[in-house]
Design brief:
18% helix; alpha+beta; single chain; eight-stranded antiparallel barrel
């Protein structure tokens, strides 16, 4: 038996497979493969060359072999026959699962593989146990997960500004093996505004009074993190926190007088995000709050903060 991948989950999976083999009358030998043969199997499966790995087992192993790859999304189990036959494999998803769930999906994979393989000989095959750490340059055993997303929604600002449409894009990268933490780069655009019926004679306008029309086009650039806090069933819940800069273009109008200004200021966002799988990618929904501060010559300080509601897709 050989297990590679996520350090925290690899050892329990190795023990679980050894216990399962023993409970199904497969003696587990103590002699491992040679170090070169171990590296050869890893190299084969990094490029998903299952036939290559099977050939290594047939040439260098004294026994049949069960090989497990453990990653942040689950476990893949390969069963290589020493004598003949086609190798079989089974993938079981188990993202953010606890030890009990991981044991159950490992058992399920082994049960499927046992039914797929030819019946064992009267003298059960001996299986070689060895647990090795994944090589540092292996990207297949411990995946690097880039996640790109696009979202649409609305911003509901305070200070009597009208709600505005929001369009955003984001990129996320898993920054730990279990994908609990993700680094985030985000950009979004929205437009909000309001119309005030009041007597106004601001110095930036010719002397006039009446209805002041204010429109703000906002573009926010931010860096931050997503932290997985729960995984109920098929859902994943994350806290998202970002900070960055907000650039704004404002159009002010009173009767026939118009003025355009630009401004920039800090912006921070805190949100709760729910996500799940959808086809080859995934979906997500977010509810949160953004704080930002902009200062214009015409109106002074404008706080364009408020609630955010968005849905999107990831791939």
């Amino acid at each position: 038996m050989m297990a590679t991948g996520d350090d925290a989950r690899r050892a329990p999976v190795a023990r679980q497979i050894e216990d399962w083999l023993a409970s199904h009358d497969y003696p587990v030998a103590s002699a491992p493969l040679s170090h070169d043969a171990e590296l050869a199997i890893i190299d084969c499966l990094v490029i998903e060359a299952v036939g290559c790995a099977h050939k290594v087992v047939q040439q260098h192993s004294a026994t049949s072999m069960v090989y497990a790859v453990v990653d942040a999304q689950g476990v893949t189990v390969y069963w290589f026959s020493k004598d003949a036959g086609t190798p079989a494999s089974e993938r079981q998803l188990c993202e953010a699962c606890d030890a009990g769930q991981l044991a159950r999906v490992t058992d399920a994979a082994l049960g499927i593989l046992m039914r797929a393989m030819p019946p064992p000989a009267p003298s059960p095959p001996v299986v070689t146990p060895v647990a090795v750490a994944a090589p540092a340059n292996s990207t297949a055993l411990v995946p690097r997960r880039w996640q790109l997303g696009i979202s649409v929604g609305a911003m509901v600002p305070r200070d009597e500004l009208d709600p505005g449409f929001l369009l955003g894009g984001s990129g996320a990268l898993a920054i730990d093996r279990s994908d609990t933490w993700q680094g985030v780069v985000a950009i979004d655009v929205t437009e909000v505004g309001r119309r005030d019926r009041t007597e106004l004679m601001p110095p930036a306008f010719p002397r006039s009074a009446g209805e002041l029309d204010q429109r703000f086009g906002l573009m926010t650039f931010a860096l931050g993190a997503r932290v997985r806090v729960a995984h109920p069933g098929a859902l994943t819940l994350r806290i998202v926190a970002t900070g960055g800069v907000q650039l704004a273009r404002a159009d002010f109008g009173v009767y026939g007088a118009n003025r355009t200004e630009s401004a920039g200021g800090p912006a921070g966002t805190l949100a709760l995000e729910a996500s799940g799988r959808l086809g080859p990618g995934g979906w997500r929904a977010m509810v949160g709050w953004r704080e930002s501060r902009l200062e214009f010559d015409t109106t002074g300080v404008i706080v364009t903060s408020g609630g955010l509601l968005a849905i999107g897709a990831d791939w």
